[in-house]
Amino acid sequence: MKRILFLIVLAALAAGCSPESKYLGVWVEPVPGMEGEFQGVKLEKGGAASSVNMQTLVYQNWALHGDSVVLTGQSVGNGQTIDFAENFTLRKEGGEWTLQAQDGSVVYRRNK
Asked: Cβ contacts of residue 16 below 8 Å, gap of 6+?
């Protein structure tokens, strides 16, 4: 009985340590020109994504591809809707995890 309980606990711990678990949460950057305001993306279990404080960049999904995170969604504005996919890399800088766009244009930090 103890062995079965141990295996159940071990399986539950392993499930919480999935490769995707370190990416889950809210990732933000300051809004340029708006002190104290932030924008970014929320990454959820199962690959769902949503935008944080952004009306025209609508994140919808995310997926791991090797060591990259691919965020997909739609850019909405100026009477057009354009599908997009952005590649990000998880990095640790000064003890803090960041999601950085591969072109360096965006750096999101995990919201605390």
From this structure: none
Centre a 10 Å sphere on the Cβ of residue 50 and count the other Cβ atoms it contains: 16
Three-class SS state of 12: helix
Listed residue (88, 47, 56, 62) closest to 74, CA to CA: 56
96: part of which helix (H) or strand (E)? strand 96-101
d(C-alpha 38, C-alpha 68), whole Å: 23
pTM to 2 decimal places: 0.80
Specify the 3-state DSSP secondary structure of 50: strand
Q: Please write the tens of the pLDDT for every residue from 78-104.
A: 889 999 999 999 998 888 999 999 998
